[in-house]
Design a protein that fits this description.
Low-confidence stretches: 673-685, 1065-1073
GO molecular function: G protein-coupled receptor activity
Membrane topology: Multi-pass membrane protein
Number of helices: 30
Oligomer: single chain
Number of strands: 47
Pfam family, one: ANF_receptor
CATH architecture of the largest domain: 3-Layer(aba) Sandwich
Main location: membrane
InterPro entries: ANF_lig-bd_rcpt, GPCR_3, mGluR, Peripla_BP_I
CATH class of the largest domain: Alpha Beta
Radius of gyration: 37 Å
Mean pLDDT: 86
């Protein structure tokens, strides 16, 4: 169909000729040129001309105006009148080529290094890309064209594109250019030479971009460098192949090396690109399976190497003793990132010691760029590269090349000048002219032959496949490229996948069903050579799952540039188990960071927990509001110069998913996936971490507290946990809370039960909302007031058993009221069970936790007359103003913000999401307010308490607030954190809504509650409050209901028909105390 569409040509109604180029673009591009003109003070866009096929034709004058709207007599000029600095990049669209082919292969290599802000490509030639790949490509074409056994009557031509180690946009531009002007694709009815496919030696990210383009024409790409497992995805890249294996095999080789050396505890570092992320993901997966422990994973973002301080912080983190027993660093980084790491290591420690062994994947491999001038810090490195045999004939070919004989490679003269430091033509770069007797020696070219066999074999793969295709489509002329074969070149991929032959270096060439080549790796050690220089020495191979490692030849360098021992003598293992190990799950964990001088950790229950599949559930908007309050408080503090001085407060935030196990997991992941730095353009800095905010629920808070004691011993400030257990400083030594404690809540519940004249009460609770110690304390308080507690029990794990709980409660003799401690979801399920069991009018519910309106939806008859307690905290108008200024793009790096925005405004920010209605972009919290939750003021006060505590600590110890300038006085160690706890506990300030705040002697917040009574259509009505240990209750405002919904009066007095002993006897079978 595409072939016939390309042949379509007709005249449009507007007399334009409609036809298509081979790549599907319109042949005759046409644009109308319109000019905004004033006509009777009305702005009108009038057409003043056209642009057709590169020619501009103006049909009427263009009008221009000054700032007052007066038409100018002439055109406004826009030109450089003095010396100007141009910011647009100079593009380099040159190709190298071998003409005369019947079909064309496109080579894509890095002939130059990446340029700068002015030039897209550097003037520096990449010798590996030039000699080892570009020339190997031309050499392979020569071999095929001279080989009588392969395509005897068909000639292969070639075009080489220079990627310049740049992004994929450059390649798209260049490929588009050659498809428009140089070559055609299969099925095109044109005379241009057809393109058979591409041979590439670029990064995995670049290969993906190129392949997406080539897939439009079903053109294959055969790579000898792109190793990311993502490229094995045949759904996305059905025509991609490679001469090498994917990083799945390379990871197996690296793990086998570690096992052979008995290295079981390692640090990992990876580049933030397709190659690094996919390689690291596979490494984490395999390491966990093999019982090896990854101490931490560090991601190197693309902007890191541009700032020395960034890279020094990365290296300092590796060597500063955070993981003193991890001596091996496994690396999936680009060559430029590897060099930046080594440079930072050199700046920090020079030649004093080398406590780290680098174990690097193929991107470092045998490249000279990472190690050039850095021998002292690179020595001892173990690198992997794709194993291929050296081709002696190719070496002789390289040494025979001269600028005079190698005209097809347009960059060869640049290589010659750079290598010999002379000029061939007039040049300001070099001072001397190149002599005519210069030549490349064997030692000059030897380092650049590692990939040559794979490049040559890639060319032969196309040649052999084309030969087989011609035999099938041209049976009458099997040695020539007939028209039918030419029109079916897009089927060459099928022929490639059937190949299995011995390559130019004597190794097997074949592809598996994913298009991956035979897994073969050479293992190299960067060590001192006989002439006292340094170089890569081959110490082993890994071929199709079999490791052959010469451990006795692996050297480790310690001090004074001397090989003191073999690498096998280095111990890299966890000496004090259990050690925390990073995993693939941690790599994928969402979090939001914005590091500053001080970084405050935050743990928020942003989503509910789904117990049935052990995952995070729906977003909790009232809990996301706490994260917004956290952001708000930090923003206010950073605007207040009296707090933290000139230092700035940042944050790092996780979602606990309202689950204790997950909360503990995300806390322990803090240093297992450490990102020390901000997203650009924020400055990348090392930060101070001494405290955290979290959690909000008792069980999650306790889990985080326990995990904290096993590791960092940070100060923990909770805005929501209320259990008295946190007053035990032996179990929770660095714990404070801006929330009130349950002690006052229990006293309030006791007073409320007494005031509404109930003599018999039951208690039901869940682990998520109360513990047995809390329940026991409440029972003691109730029975101290002469109130019987019967039918006390913990809610079952299965909600299917809730109907049985209601039946048992209704069967308790004399019971009319139940105190409940449960989450909102548990409460709703229990009330639904009450509706099914007809408990309306029989049981009055008294909740120790506040209920939202959603809890009573559909169960209003069951809930009528019930009571809930709501913490009474002020609302802060400044926070409302902060919310009103937010837009959908306010927190672009927050992984949960857009979800919150969509849920709050009930609209979608992108097509195909949860909501059919698309957000207009005008939504605001002014038109749909977010009512402040009672936790919000606690969250704000917690952040302020931390910031003030830090301020007072630094002023007392150092006289100023400065992380680096006060490191000796406040090193941020365990002692500093203990002192910070003391300072925070003593703060007293004007907090949220201007209300005074300070901690109690037990480091708790102040206790204030509202008592709410559910009154049907009127909803929750405030009928009392608790303050300073006293309950004030308006008995006249309270409404109780019978089963029919009729209002009942409160009993005139508490009546107990039997002593408590007899109530317990009657209900003994399930009273648990």
């Amino acid at each position: 169909m595409m072939r016939y569409l390309r042949e379509v040509e007709f005249v449009h109604l507007d007399n334009r000729t409609i036809a298509f180029k081979d790549n599907g673009e319109v042949k005759h591009a046409m644009y109308g040129v319109k000019n905004a003109q004033l006509t009777d003070n009305v702005l009108v866009f009038n057409e003043v001309g056209t642009w057709v096929d590169g020619k501009l034709s103006l049909s009427s004058p263009i009008e221009m105006y000054d700032r007052n709207g007066t038409r100018t007599p002439s055109y406004v000029t826009s030109s450089c009148s003095d010396s100007c600095e141009c910011k647009n990049k100079q593009l380099d669209n040159r190709f190298s080529r071998l003409d005369g082919g019947d079909v064309v292969l496109v080579g894509i290599f890095d002939a130059h290094l990446e340029g700068d802000e002015v030039k897209e490509c550097s003037d520096i030639v990449d010798k590996l890309g030039m000699l080892g790949e570009t020339e190997a490509f031309f050499y392979g074409l020569d071999l095929v064209n001279q080989d009588p056994s392969v395509l005897p009557n068909v000639t292969l031509g070639g075009i080489v594109l220079d990627n310049c180690n740049v992004n994929a946009d450059r390649l798209s531009r260049q490929i588009t250019s050659i498809l428009l002007e140089e070559v055609s694709v299969a099925g095109a009815n044109v005379d241009a030479v057809p393109m058979l496919g591409a041979v590439s030696g670029i990064s995995s990210t670049g290969a993906m971009h190129v392949q997406r383009f080539l897939e439009v024409y079903k053109l294959p790409q055969i790579s000898h460098r792109s190793s990311s497992p993502l490229l094995s995805d045949k759904a996305r890249f059905p025509h991609f192949l490679r001469m090498i294996a994917s990083d799945v095999a390379q990871v197996d080789a690296m793990i086998d090396i570690m096992k052979a050396m008995n290295w079981t505890y390692v640090i990992t570092v990876f580049s933030d690109n397709a190659y690094g992320r996919a390689g690291m993901r596979q490494f984490l997966r395999k390491a966990e399976k093999e019982g090896l422990c990854v101490a931490t994973q560090i991601m190197i973002e693309n902007y890191f190497p541009s700032d020395d301080a960034v890279m020094e912080n990365v290296v300092q983190y590796m060597i500063a003793g955070v993981f003193p027993n991890a001596k091996v660093v496994a690396m999936f980084v680009t060559a430029s990132h590897a060099r930046a790491i080594l440079q930072a290591r050199n700046r920090l420690l020079g030649n004093t010691s080398n406590e780290i062994i680098w174990l690097a994947a193929d991107a470092w491999g045998l490249a000279g760029r990472p190690v050039s001038g850095l021998d002292s810090v690179a020595r001892g490195a173990i690198t992997l590269d794709f194993h291929s045999q050296t081709l002696p004939a190719f070496g002789r070919y390289l040494t025979s090349l001269t600028p005079e004989t190698n005209k097809r490679n347009i960059w060869f003269e640049e290589l010659w000048e750079q290598h010999f430091g002379c000029y061939l033509r007039d040049s300001s770069k070099y001072s001397k002219r190149c002599s005519e007797d210069l030549s490349l020696s064997h030692s000059d070219v030897a380092p650049f032959q590692s990939h040559a066999a794979n490049v040559v074999d890639g060319v032969y793969v196309y040649a052999r496949s084309l030969q087989n295709l011609i035999k099938d489509f041209c049976p009458e002329t099997p040695l020539e490229l007939c028209r039918k074969a030419r029109n079916n070149l897009d089927k060459v991929y099928e022929y490639i996948t059937r190949l299995d032959f011995e390559g130019s270096g004597g190794t097997r060439v074949a592809f598996d069903r994913l298009g991956d080549g035979v897994p073969r790796y050479g293992i190299y050690n960067f060590q001192r050579l006989h002439d006292n220089s340094y170089g890569y020495v081959k110490v082993g191979t890994w071929t199709e799952g079999v490791l052959n490692l010469e451990k006795q030849n692996l050297y480790y360098y310690a001090i004074n540039d001397t090989a003191t021992k073999t690498a096998e003598a280095v111990t890299s293992s966890c000496l004090n188990p259990p050690c925390k190990c990073s995993t693939e799950e941690i790599m994928d964990m969402p979090f939001h960071e914005q590091y500053r001088d001080f970084t405050l950790l935050g743990y928020f229950p942003l989503h509910a927990y789904q117990s049935f599949d052990d995952t995070c559930g729906a977003l909790r908007p009232e809990m996301y509001q706490q994260l917004l309050a956290f952001y708000f408080a930090i923003d206010q503090i950073n605007k207040n110069s009296t707090i933290l001085g000139d230092s700035v407060l940042g944050f790092m935030v996780w979602d606990t998913c309202s689950n204790s196990k997950h909360g503990e997991f995300v806390f322990e992941a803090f240093d297992l996936n450490l990102r020390l730095f901000n997203q650009p353009p924020d400055p990348p800095i090392l930060t101070n971490v001494m405290a955290m905010i979290g959690g909000y629920f008792d069980d999650v808070t306790a889990a985080i507290s326990k995990a904290n004691q096993r590791g960092y011993h940070l100060v923990q400030i909770s805005p929501g946990a209320t259990s008295p257990v946190f007053n035990n400083k032996t179990n929770h030594p660095r714990f404070l809370r801006t929330a009130r404690t349950n002690t006052g809540q229990l006293e309030l519940l006791t007073s409320l039960v007494k005031e509404i004249r109930r003599s018999v009460i039951s208690i039901v609770y869940s682990n998520a909302s109360a513990d047995e110690e809390t329940v026991e304390s409440l029972i003691a308080l109730l029975e101290g007031q002469g109130i019987c507690t019967v039918g006390v029990r913990k809610l079952p794990d299965s909600e299917g058993e809730y109907d049985g709980v209601i039946k048992e409660l209704c069967s308790v003799h004399g019971l009319t009221a139940v105190i409940i401690f449960a989450s909102e979801s548990e409460t709703l399920q229990l009330l639904l069970a009450g509706k099914r069991q007809g408990s309306a009018g029989k049981l009055m519910w008294i909740s120790g936790n506040p209920w939202r309106a959603g809890v009573v939806d559909g169960v209003e008859d069951v809930v009528r007359g019930s009571f809930t307690l709501q913490p009474d905290y002020p609302t802060d108008s400044r926070f409302d103003t902060f919310l009103e200024r937010l837009t959908a793009d306010s927190f672009p790096n927050d992984p949960w913000y857009r979800e919150f925005w969509e849920d709050h405004f009930e609209c979608g920010l992108e097509f195909g999401g949860k909501y059919d209605v698309v957000c207009r972009g005008t939504e605001s919290f002014s038109e749909r307010p977010l009512p402040q939750h009672f936790y919000t003021s606690n969250t704000i006060n917690a952040v302020y308490a931390y910031a003030l505590g830090v301020t007072y600590l630094y002023l007392r110890k150092c006289g100023k607030v400065n992380v680096s300038g006060c490191f000796d006085e406040v090193p941020g160690d365990d002692g500093s954190i203990g002192e910070l706890l003391e300072e925070i506990s003593k703060v007293s300030f004007s907090g949220a809504a201007g209300q005074p705040f300070s901690f109690t002697e037990e480091n708790n917040g102040l206790e204030r509650y509202k008592v709410l009574n559910y009154q049907g259509d009127a909803g929750f009505v405030e009928v009392g409050h608790w303050k300073d240990g006293r309950l004030s209750l308006d008995l006249q405002a309270i409404k109780l209901y019978d089963a029919q919904g009729n209002v009942m009066d409160l009993p005139s007095q508490r009546r107990m028909s039997l002593p408590c002993f007899w109530y317990n006897m009657f209900n003994l079978p399930w009273h648990i105390y």
